[in-house]
Amino acid sequence: MSQTPLLDTINLPEDLRGLDAKQLPQVAEELRTFLLASVGQTGGHFASNLGAVELTVALHYVYNTPEDHLVWDVGHQSYPHKILTGRKDRMNTMRKYGGLAGFPKRSESEYDAFGVGHSSTSIGAALGMAVADKLAGNDKRSVAIIGDGAMTAGQAFEALNCAGDMDIDLLVILNDNEMSISPNVGALPKYLARNVVRDMHGLLSTIKAQSTKVLDKLPGALEIAQKVEHRIKTIAGEAEHVKQSLSLFENFGFHYTGPVDGHNVDNLVEVLQDLRHKKGPQILHVITKKGQGYKLAENDPVKYHAVSTLAQDNKETVPSTPKPAAKPTYTQIFGKWLCDQAAADSRLIAITPAMREGSGLVEYEKQFPERYFDVGIAEQHAITFAGGLACCGSKPVVAIYSTFLQRGYDQLIHDIALQNLPVLFAIDRAGIVGADGPTHAGLYDLSFLRCVPNMVIAAPSDENECRLLLSTCYQIDGPAAVRYPRGSGIGADVSDGLNTVPVGKGLIKREGRKTAFIAFGSMVQTALEAAETLDATVADMRFVKPLDEALICSLAQSHDYLVTIEENTAQGGAGSAVLEVLAKHNICKPTLLLGVADTVTEHGDPKRLIDDLGLSTEGVLRQVQNWQAQI
Questions:
Q1: Binding site membership for thiamine diphosphate: which residues?
Q2: How does the average pLDDT of the chain come out, rounded?
Q3: CATH superfamily label, 330-483
Q4: At which positions is Mg(2+) bound (predicted)?
């Protein structure tokens, strides 16, 4: 017998809207059951989706999707949305090669109004849709669903500032679960928490107003009630202050509603039905619990933000995780190096834009709490903040994913590079990332970094090289970046010291004939494997900028063919830099550039993606041999 009999009858939101509103709590319960089973099989983002079940049901029940636009910020919470919008039977393919994407994707469904993956874009996108619909003369509605973590980013406030000054019908739903991936930081989450107190103040005011006539008839009762009210306000925590400070969203020009219980689907439907017909910018503050309905995720939403799989025999079983790797990940290498370097240099300050766990900073925070700063989902601020620190003698290390560094590009150029400030960027998740797909792929950093003046860029080929290059670039009196891939490397032994290597110097890893691989970072190992068949020379360049020009020229003079290889877009990347060196020295030599083609990559198993891109050992051999046969 099916555990989800009512959900089984729902293939599209129109089926949901055909139900009686009294059936929605059952839909929500069954949707959570289905979600537990599907994510248990495929893995993926978990706690955030559990927390958004009732909200998703209510939104699709009230709004006429896909005519009305639901824009999900980041997309971590979009699985219930996918289940209700015709993709229920494909949820077993989530994040797999050729299957459903882990985030909303316009090419996947007409119900995915906007493709997302990075945070804080939803309000601006929904505003654009609302304006377009107004100009077209229709009455379609646009809704942005954004979390309290994503609301800390400046882009969200830029959109609020713009929307609040417009005569436009827009609803922003603030899904407040007091979390992003890590616990939220900053003033805004504290402000939002006080709003709950404000709600109590409003309730007290209503009770007082409605009961005054009765209390007036009872001698002494009004005085007693006033004392009780004062005591409740004291317990609630400065309710009068909260009442005065609740003007944040209203000052932006939005009409504020809330806070509302995000797990009461009946009440959510009533509130949304009312808001759907209201004019002007509206904001609905919804309180949810990340991991709702799964106790382990409720108690530890950080650990259960994303999981590999879940054991299916018991809903309270911990996530089944891969066996511990025998070799450390690059993230762990960085985390260990950071602690060691900080112990040796009190000037070191670590900064993360809301990625403490993902960037390997948990142990560092424990050891050096006063020199650790999580600035929230604010990559631009993280970089400028680092610049300010560097101006006053500190040595900032910004731990950031390659895909998120893109968000701070202006600050990297304007605030760091142009002033030649000593800031080290530890760039994690460089190259293909796998299941998270194109929004998270780190395929562009070599291209967009190497054109920036004063930058030093290093790409380690293994775990020990990662530590060496981190130590080396930390000592540079200027901006530097070390980019390394997700996961583990080749299992190289890692030293415990803080040794350095010469800046801008590569080394020969294998001597061969005729063909020379000029290899960067993670592709050095692939080049070495291919070189065994080709009897080729392999150079580990270590640095993308400055390049070892002498080594490149020497290889060009002693070999018939040059092959550059990198896990980065081939356009404007390390291979292009090699061509520039050859042109500078008037060297004409057949050169093949291997990297990621000018295409949007997909999601799936990284090895499968690498093979599809022709960057596996077999793919490299095939490309080199075909190229040489045509010369």
A1: 76, 117-119, 149-150, 177, 294, 379
A2: 87
A3: Thiamin diphosphate (ThDP)-binding fold, Pyr/PP domains (3.40.50.970)
A4: 148, 177
